[in-house]
TrEMBL record:
<feature type="domain" description="MADS-box">
    <location>
        <begin position="1"/>
        <end position="52"/>
    </location>
</feature>
<dbReference type="InterPro" id="IPR002100">
    <property type="entry name" value="TF_MADSbox"/>
</dbReference>
<dbReference type="GO" id="GO:0005634">
    <property type="term" value="C:nucleus"/>
</dbReference>
<dbReference type="GO" id="GO:0000981">
    <property type="term" value="F:DNA-binding transcription factor activity, RNA polymerase II-specific"/>
</dbReference>
<protein>
    <submittedName>
        <fullName>Agamous-like MADS-box protein AGL29</fullName>
    </submittedName>
</protein>
<keyword id="KW-0804">Transcription</keyword>
<keyword id="KW-0238">DNA-binding</keyword>
<dbReference type="InterPro" id="IPR036879">
    <property type="entry name" value="TF_MADSbox_sf"/>
</dbReference>
<dbReference type="GO" id="GO:0046983">
    <property type="term" value="F:protein dimerization activity"/>
</dbReference>
<dbReference type="Pfam" id="PF00319">
    <property type="entry name" value="SRF-TF"/>
</dbReference>
<dbReference type="GO" id="GO:0000978">
    <property type="term" value="F:RNA polymerase II cis-regulatory region sequence-specific DNA binding"/>
</dbReference>
<keyword id="KW-0805">Transcription regulation</keyword>
<keyword id="KW-0539">Nucleus</keyword>
Length: 142
């Protein structure tokens, strides 16, 4: 009275249908979007997607592209910081600067600071002002 060996194709088919049914239940109960890709032993793909495979994959790939673009911009950001340092050094007053020159320099630096804050805000990066030195932290949607 042992277990009989079952045909692998029938087992795979039943398991695949069960997996897709469970994915549909989880997706509908949680309101999430998902894609499930299953490969058979012959490497034939079977796909389930809610609301559709294309919409979920398009969204995922566009998010990956924007992440890759952000990573690629790191070098550009480093160059921008170098340019900013050159500008600050260029406009830096000498040791014997008068009050008017120092006020102009202060206004110039404050203008740059405001532009940087606007750029950080547009990128979703908030400045932690809990200390005199601000630390940037990226906002994450939960």
């Amino acid at each position: 009275m042992g277990r009989r060996k079952m045909n692998m194709k029938a087992t795979f088919s039943k398991r695949r249908k069960g997996l897709f049914r469970e994915a549909a239940n989880v997706s509908s109960s949680s309101g999430s979007e998902m894609v499930v890709i299953v490969l058979s032993s012959e490497n034939k793909p079977y796909v389930f997607g809610n609301p559709s495979v294309d919409s979920v994959l398009d969204r995922f790939l566009s998010e990956q592209d924007s992440y890759d673009d952000h990573e690629g911009n790191q070098e550009e950001d480093d160059i921008d910081v170098e340019k900013l340092q050159v500008l600050l050094d260029k406009h830096k007053p000498n040791k014997h600067a008068g009050v008017d020159e120092l006020k102009k320099y202060k206004a110039y630096v404050e203008g740059i600071k405001k532009r940087v804050e606007r750029k950080m805000d547009s990128l979703g990066i908030k400045l932690d002002n809990s200390s005199e030195i601000g630390y940037a932290r990226e906002e994450r949607d939960q």
